[in-house]
Design a protein that fits this description.
This protein is mostly helical. The protein contains 32 helices and 20 strands. The strands form seven sheets. A three-stranded antiparallel β-sheet has the order 1-3-2, sandwiched between helices. A three-stranded antiparallel β-sheet has the order 4-6-5. It has a three-stranded antiparallel β-sheet with strand order 7-9-8.
């Protein structure tokens, strides 16, 4: 009995703990707890492998753990206990979404319930913010205020339930490095229960995105541990870093570049966006690790692959939408131009496109009809309306477009547009041949404005366009026009000129004024006193792929100099917030000083800029 009375309180407490705690917890290996690496090493050195070993430690100062180690073990046990209790209490905490929804809506008033249902899609498809604003007759600012009030009320009245939701969202982000796909929700989680009982796989994620907008963003079928503004900035930045014409880039290097631009992104989020949004292939390299390989396909090849996936003819509107859905960016004008220029595609209607390989039999079947129409046009010796001729044959619309497609490559006729064709009896158009005769008779350059004014009124527009853009002509000086054959530039000399200027621009910053390039050309046999900066600029505008800006600035096309200049100028106009002159823009943006000669013309040509008669500019 005296022995029992003499036992120390600490030892008695340890004996009670060992009798109260289950053997499963006492035998729990410490490596299963989320301990820090240093703490786990110190415990291993002391040969402490289980929770029971910790309880068996004596209480004297020489052999007991340090206070910091005790605190670390306590926190790890608390986290493990919390996770276990959360799993135990899950079914009791509104696992049935019907019950949870009723309790959430009970905290809201009727207008708030309607807004809540529209945002989350509780009784149908979720609506966008602009659609809800139009439906409720609110401005976007008023709608955002109501959404903030609704969010605050829910977080106040259902704090425990939403706290549980937030905790599970954080655990999902931690497990998947910032990415939470709807298809990979934990089976016994509240998120999975909401998705299962509601029948909507994305409802739980939409609820998280609405309640915690500063912590996550819903995009597609995944929730990202990133705020919406940073997510939008990331989507704007990534296409520039992994452009189609760039070399493969290591993922680690891409993460470092994004961090330098203020975008710290989890690796899994980045890999998911590269694969799903930009269609970037991620491959493993033995030295560089994971690398991003940009899609090397051209726009034409992408369009052909997209049509093969769709498997049927499609309208241009739906094709542009599908291209934007797949590759994020799409320009209808550019896509339509590529469809018309490539022989891979065929037009089956006013706005319907298909792959030519799918219609080889149909195209061969209209050969007799094409030959009949072409012979009729050639026998008449004048232009004819193909649509009207085929209307007499009572053919359907699809056959009509197939005939027009075959006639476009028939050497016997020349298509004039709008369903009209004429015999191809001349290698050049009659208007162009007449212009060449007039210039031979003039024997030199003429005044452009007077020459156009002297043309018959129906021909003035086409004559002016030919003189300004056709490669047979050249402008040696302002408002002067001449034949290119009067200057020593044949095909070989033009090719040498373009190659030399390309090397010259590469040695510079990628752009230079025409006067500086003329000086470089004059050092070779291609130049001379007759080669004026205006003549050189016009030659490059007609015969090269360089970007020619007003004022005679020549730049490599891949620099996108015009677009970058206008982006900077528009920002200066936006900051000024009132009409300003070019001199004011240059004072605000001194880096634009070397482009002073072309800024005025660029601003006057920009559809987003309003210009006054006194050369003051402002954004529309």
């Amino acid at each position: 009995m005296s022995k029992k009375r003499n036992r120390s309180p600490a030892k008695a407490a340890r004996d009670i703990s060992r009798r109260l705690l289950p053997s499963t917890l006492l035998d729990l290996p410490l490596r299963h707890l989320s301990l820090g690496a240093d703490l786990a090493q110190r415990l291993a050195v002391r040969q402490l492998a289980t929770v029971g070993d910790l309880l068996a430690l004596p209480a004297d100062n020489k052999t007991s753990l340090a206070d910091t180690d005790i605190e670390g073990v306590q926190q790890a046990l608390a986290r493990a206990l919390h996770d276990g209790l959360c799993q135990v209490g899950l079914e009791a905490q509104h696992a049935d979404w019907t019950t949870a929804r009723a309790q959430l809506e009970a905290q809201l008033q009727e207008p708030e319930r309607r807004l809540f249902g529209a945002l989350l899609g509780l009784d149908g498809a979720p609506s966008t913010r602009p659609a809800i604003a139009r439906q409720l007759g609110l401005s976007m600012l008023q709608l955002d205020e109501q959404m903030a009030q609704l969010r605050a009320r829910l977080l106040d009245r259902a704090a425990a339930w939403l706290g549980r939701l937030r905790y599970e969202m954080g655990r999902g982000f931690a497990a998947a490095d910032g990415l939470l796909p709807a298809a990979e929700l934990a089976p016994d989680s509240l998120l999975h229960s909401i998705a299962r009982t509601s029948g909507d796989a994305l409802l739980a994620l939409r609820l998280c995105a609405f309640c915690f907008p500063r912590e996550c963003h819903l995009h597609g079928a995944s929730l990202f541990a990133i705020s919406p503004p940073r997510f939008r900035k990331l989507l704007r930045t990534l296409p520039r870093l992994v452009a189609q014409n760039r070399l493969p880039l290591a993922v680690d290097e891409l993460v470092a570049v994004l961090a330098a631009e203020g975008l710290q992104v989890q690796r899994q989020v980045l890999l998911h966006l590269l694969r799903s949004q930009l269609r970037i292939t991620i491959t493993n390299d033995t030295t560089a690790g994971e690398i991003c390989v940009p899609d090397p396909r051209s726009t034409t090849t992408r369009l052909a692959d997209l049509l093969r996936e769709i498997g049927q003819p499609i309208s241009i509107e739906n094709l542009v939408f599908a291209y934007r859905e797949r590759f994020r960016r799409a320009n209808r004008t550019s896509i339509e131009q590529r469809l018309r220029r490539s022989n891979i595609f065929v037009m089956l209607g006013p706005s319907t496109w298909s792959l030519r390989a799918w219609h080889e039999t149909e195209l061969a079947g209209v050969s007799a009809l094409v030959d009949k129409v072409v012979r009729r046009i050639c026998n008449d010796g004048r232009r004819g309306n193909v649509v009207r001729m085929l209307g007499e044959e009572q053919v359907d619309e699809r056959t009509l477009w197939l005939v027009l497609d075959r006639m476009a490559v028939d050497p016997r006729v020349r298509m004039l547009g709008r369903g009209e064709a004429c015999p191809a009896v001349h290698q050049k158009s009659q208007v162009l041949e007449q212009l060449l005769r007039d210039f031979r008779r003039a024997g030199g350059d003429v005044v452009l404005s007077l020459f156009v004014a002297n043309q018959p009124r129906p021909r003035r527009r086409i004559v002016e366009r030919l003189l300004r853009w056709n490669r047979l002509f050249v402008c040696p000086a302002p408002d002067r026009i001449d034949l290119l054959t009067n200057y020593p530039f044949n095909e070989d000399r033009l090719r040498r000129l373009m190659a030399m200027l390309h090397r010259e621009l590469q040695e510079r910053a990628g752009y230079a004024p025409a006067s500086a390039l003329k000086t470089a050309v004059d050092r070779t046999d291609l130049g001379g006193s007759w080669l004026t900066p205006e003549l050189l600029t016009d030659l490059l505008q007609r015969h090269s792929r360089f970007e020619v800006l007003p004022g005679g600035v020549i730049a490599r096309r891949d620099l996108h100099l015009r677009a970058n200049l206008m982006r900077t100028v528009r920002q200066a106009l936006r900051d000024a917030d009132h009409p300003v002159a070019v001199a004011d823009v240059l004072r605000a943006r001194p880096e634009l000083g070397e482009f002073e000669s072309c800024l005025r013309d660029l601003l006057r040509a920009d559809p987003l800029v309003q210009a006054s008669e006194t050369d003051y500019f402002s954004l529309l």
